[in-house]
From TrEMBL:
InterPro entries hit by this protein: NAD(P)-bd_dom_sf, SDR_fam
A GO MF label: oxidoreductase activity
Pfam families linked to this entry: adh_short
Native organism: Immersiella caudata
Protein name: Uncharacterized protein
Length: 367
């Protein structure tokens, strides 16, 4: 006897296989590559600022001219921040003037606002920050929002694919430069917080992130081609940064000489911004962004809360209202191995280009 051209036994097996795939395969696939439930939760999340006042404190924001960075700056300013440092390759005078106008209209005090231009497209450009940091007596909150999204491969002056340069290597360098100068202001009872920005895009990018047995892992990802690899380059560069952030947090905790700093990553969710507008011309990225986008203001609130989080957030990922798991591939033994490899390769590259950074690495190794 046959059913739709198949013997009954064969049809039953096919149905059973389909049932297994639907019951077990799809949930595993979504958990590994597309955590849609998390995206929906963020889309509908409406976080509020958890810190009532930043009176007497200093906050620094990279990418301060961007949609998230500029809004985060406005949030800090509206809650009595004492000193606000706006860092970007673009002139942040417009951001400063808007903050001052908004506060004046609301009858609120205007903080000291510093504008520092730093070009994160090269290591040399990042080093301009090292000199300026000496101006700060305290640094309570550092929020690293600077990033780029490009679907066409380009190279930085240092020879790295530009997403890998700005989103990962230069951000890692900036974090290392910030670490020694992070010191809480007298009115802040908590350790300073250094916050990296992470993204859902890491999950689908793991398709193209196999670790080579030999040679540099970072260079393999940087020496990519246009097409699928470049399409995932934002997520790939952020995955490298997530590895770096987690390892930096662990080493900071283990070091006897490193300052007491809370190091975490914050996922703001997705919004349509000048950065993500590049997705409009890409079918799948456009669909995903449209599926999960919310107002940029909520994304900025999530980042400010991450940069204000308690010591409990050290080494973790902060979402709107709770902590999130690391992507599955980063939690496996292979992910732990990859993390060490990313740390050592980054160190080798930065020390070869910026010898001054060796003192920070030595500080993190003091046991």
């Amino acid at each position: 006897m046959v059913t739709n051209g198949l013997p009954i036994g064969t049809a039953a097996i096919a149905v059973a296989i389909a049932a297994v795939i639907l019951t077990f395969g799809l949930p595993l696939f979504f958990k590994e590559y597309f955590p849609y439930q998390t995206l929906l939760k963020q889309k509908h999340g409406r976080p509020t600022v958890t810190t009532a006042s930043y009176k007497g404190r200093t906050a620094l924001i990279t990418g301060a001219n961007g949609a998230f960075g500029s809004r985060a700056a406005g949030i800090f300013a509206s809650r009595d921040i004492d000193t606000l440092v706006l860092v970007d390759v673009m002139d942040c005078t417009g951001v400063k003037e808007k903050i001052e106008a908004d506060l004046s209209a609301a009858g609120k005090p205007i903080p000291k606002i510093l504008i520092w231009k730093v070009d994160m497209m090269s290591f040399k450009g990042c080093m301009g920050l090292a000199e300026r940091l000496r101006e700060l007596e305290y640094l309570d909150h550092a929020l690293l929002t600077a990033g780029i999204l490009s679907f066409k491969r380009k190279e930085s002056p240092d020879g790295w694919e530009t997403s890998m340069q700005v989103n990962f290597l230069s951000t890692a360098l900036v974090a290392l430069l910030l670490l020694p100068v992070m010191k809480p202001s007298p009115g802040n009872p908590n350790p300073p917080v250094l916050t990296f920005v992470t993204t859902f895009g890491i999950y689908p990018s793991s398709f193209t992130m196999s670790v080579p047995k030999q040679g540099s892992y970072i260079k393999r990802l940087s020496n990519n081609k246009d097409g699928m690899e470049q399409g995932h380059q934002y997520g790939r560069s952020k995955a490298m940064l997530l590895y770096f952030a987690r390892e930096m947090a662990a080493r900071c905790s283990a070091s006897k000489t490193a300052p007491k700093v809370t190091i975490n990553s914050a996922d703001p969710g997705t919004a349509w911004t000048p950065l993500t507008n590049a997705n409009r011309d890409q079918f799948i990225p456009r669909i995903i962004t449209q599926f999960s986008a919310r107002e940029p203001e909520f994304c900025a609130v999530a980042l400010v809360n991450g940069a204000s989080a308690s010591e409990e957030s050290h080494g973790r990922i902060v979402h709107d209202f709770d902590f999130a798991d690391y992507p599955p591939f980063t939690k496996r033994k292979s992910g732990q191995v990859a993390q060490k490899r990313v740390w050592e390769e980054t160190r080798e590259e930065l020390e070869s280009k910026i010898p001054e950074i060796r003192s920070v690495y030595s500080m993190l190794e003091a046991k």
